[in-house]
Give the backbone structure.
Amino acid sequence: MYKYLITLVSGAALSANMVAGVAIVVKDEAITLYDIKKEMKVSNVNKEMAINTLVRQKLEESEIKTRKIDVSNTEVYDDIKQTAKRNNMSVSQLYEAALNANGISSNELKIKVKQKLLAQKLYNSIAYSQASRPTENELREYYDLNKESFSHPSSFTTVIYQTTDQPALAKKIENPMFYAPQIQTQEQELQYDRISPELANLLEKTQLNTFTPIVPDGKGGHMSFYVKAVKGVQDLGFDKMRGQIENEILGKKREQVLGDYFARLKENAEINILRNVE
């Protein structure tokens, strides 16, 4: 059972908390009603799951401070440059793609990348030495049970909409009957093995007969892919996917170690509930 310290406050203090919107305090760090509702919306989860996620984040932040883990601006920028390079983009084009696809500004993207790198360092410091490497039998069993995860389409039949007029392209996506002569279209079959992993992932996530989010075209313009068909399924095979299988198993083992670790922290943490979340 979690050690919740229920805070009793005066009428004046309660009023102040109501204005501030603070719902929960975890080790002196506040979680607001806005934080909870935003997490519910962004992650499409219920209230309880959103609160659990945010409490875990606060506990992780506390551990990062305790262990004096840091990430430099250079590390953040190097990660962003690597992501841009994998997508055949400049850094500025990557920032634009993040804004168009997810509504994330360049500053917000840098914050998210820093949080990701901090979490990776924290996880490694806690779990790396405790997660044993999988045996050959574990690798084979995991592959047999998850074969669908190690296959992918052979190609995507798409119509590429490309223009320098982003607002017009946005209107076209909202209303396919909208006529905009400045938008060029081209039907093209994209081979899975010949496109970037990020584009392949984007196309796989896009439902048939719908558009992808608008992304930079690498030439100063913008583009969106209308997915008409997905062809074939290629089984990549055990030998080719051995490295990924091992990484996934290790990831699950480390997450189990981390889950147990943070569950113990949560059990003993000072968590103050200031108000109910409607």
About this structure: Residues 1-19 have pLDDT under 50 and may be disordered. The first strand starts at residue 22 and ends at 26. The radius of gyration is 23 Å. Strands lie at 22-26, 29-32, 151-163, 184-191, 215-216, 222-235, 271-273.
